[in-house]
Amino acid sequence: MNVPLRNHDIAELKRLDVAHHLPAQADHKLIAEMGGSRIITRAHGCRIVDGDGNELLDGMAGLWCVNVGYGREELARVAYDQMLELPYYNTFFKTVTPPAVMLATKVAEKLGNGLTHVFFNSSGSEANDTVFRLTRHYWALKGQPQRKIFISRWNAYHGSTVAGVSLGGMKAMHAQGGLPIPGVEHVIQPYRFGEAFGEDPATFAARAAQAIEDRILAVGPENVAAFIGEPIQGAGGVVIPPDGYWPLVEAICRKYGILLICDEVITGFGRLGEWFGFQHYGVRPDLVCMAKGLSSGYLPISAVGVADHIVAELREKGGDFVHGYTYSGHPTCAAVALRNIEIMEREGLVDRTREDTGPYLARALATLNDHPLVGEVRSLGLLGAVEIVSEKGTNKRFGGAEGTAGPVVRDLCIRNGLMVRGIRDTIVCCPPLIISHAEIDQLVSIVRRSLDEALPILTGAVKT
Ligand SMILES: *Cc1c(COP(=O)(O)O)cnc(C)c1O
To answer: How far apart are CA 49 and CA 145, in angstroms?
Structure first.
C-alpha cells in the first residue's frame, strides 16, 4: 500500500485510526469518542500543518525534540545516502559502522568533563534502562554489589519502560503495573512555585538537596548506587531548580561516593543555551542520558555518555556487559544525528539560544505577568512555563485541585494556532531552536489571547 504524501482522505484516515491504531500516552476511550486523533500531515521550520489545513506554530518542537526545525533537506539526503551505502549493521559481533564511531566521537567532544565514551540506544527510555543496568553492573565490578538503590525525585520523567517509569516519579504511571520496581527511592522535587511557594530560593535549594542526603542516610550510604535527575524536569512541568540546588546535589553525591546521573533527554543539545544542562549548572555527572535533540527527532536514536572512570572499571575487570540493543549505533540514525549536530554548530544555535532567543523568550513571557490568571512565568534558554492560578499572588488552582485550568488554556492555544502542552495547570513551551523573534512574539501573544478567553470560562463555569 502506497501512502500518498499529499491529498489525504482525512475522514478515511481518522476512521482507520480509530479502527486500528492505539496512540501513545492516551485516553483510548476519549480518542475513539473524538473520532480519531488530529492528523498532522506536514511541517516546515517551526510550523506544523494538520489534515484540515490548519497551520500551527509548534511551541513544543514536536515532543521536545525538533531542535533544528522541520524540513531539513540535508538530513533527508544524509539518510538516503547512508541507506544506499549501509542501511543497518549491529555492534554485537565485534563490529561497528563509521557513523556510529564518528557520532560517539562528536558527542564525547560536546560532553567534555571526562565523559569520554558513548553507548547508543534508540530512545530516551532505553537510555535510562542502560544507565540502570550499567550503574548496577559498575558497582558489582567494584566489589560493592549491594549498591543498588537509585535516588530520584517525585514528578521526574525518565521514560515509559519498566526501568524508566520506576526511575521516574510520576505517581499515575507507578499506579499502572505495580511500579516502581524495588530499589528506587523518590524525594521532593525542586519545584518552588508548587511545593514551597514564597520560600526564599536559597533556603529551598538547601532543603530540597538536604532531602536527598537524608534519604541516603536513611537507606544507608553503602547501599546507594546513584542519584538521577533531569537538570530541568521537562514533562514534570518545566521545573527550574533554584540556583545552588545542583552544586549542592553534586556535593552530596561526592560525599557518599555515589554516581551522579543527569537525564539530559530534553536539556541536551542546546535547549538551555549550552550543549548540555549540566554545563549550565556547572556540575560533572558520571553518566548522561540523551535522545530527542540528538537527532532533532528526524530518526530515533539515544545515547548514554559514560565517564572515563566507569569505562576504566569495565576495561580493567573485563567480561561481557550483557546489555545492548539490535539498533545500538544504527548507522542511518547515527549519520542523521551527526549531521544534525553539525547543523547546530554551523548555525550557532546553542550560542543563539543563550545570548539571543533565550533571553528574548524570557522577556516576552514576562509580559504575561500582569495577567490575572498568571501566577508565575519562568524560562531558561528555550524552555518556558506559565503557571495558571485562580487567585493572583498565590499558587491556588481553579477547582481547588490541579488540572482544571491547564487543559482549558491548552485547548484554546491550539485552537488559536499554537501547539503547546498543559501539564496540570502549567502551560509549557519548548520551541525549535531556530525560532525567530517574530515567532516568539506570536507564541506569547497566542498564549495571552488564550488566557483572556479562558478567564470568563474559568471564573464563570468553574467556581473554586
Ligand atoms: C522524553 C524523555 C524520556 C523518554 O524518552 P523516549 O524517547 O520517549 O523513550 C526520558 N527522559 C526524559 C527527561 C524525557 O524528557
So the answer is: 52
Instruction: List where CATH 3.40.640.10 sits in the chain.
Output: 74-347
- Burial grade of 321 (CB within 10 A; 0-12, 13-18, 19 or more): middle
Classify domain 74-347 by CATH number: 3.40.640.10
If one counts every other C-beta atom within 10 angstroms of the C-beta of residue 28, the result is: 10
Q: Which atom of ligand 1 is nearest to the CA of 156?
A: 13
CATH fold of 38-71+349-461: Aspartate Aminotransferase, domain 1 (3.90.1150)
| d(CA 65, ligand 1 centre) in Å | 10
As averages over each run of 10 residues, the pLDDT of the chain (464 residues) reads 77 97 97 96 97 96 98 98 98 98 98 98 98 98 98 98 98 96 98 97 98 98 98 98 97 98 98 98 98 98 98 96 98 98 98 98 98 98 98 94 94 98 98 98 98 95 49
Ligand 1 atom nearest the C-alpha of 267 is 13
**C-beta of 266 in contact with ligand 1 (< 6 A):** yes
DSSP type of residue 367: G
From the CB of 119, is ligand 1 less than 6 Å away?
no
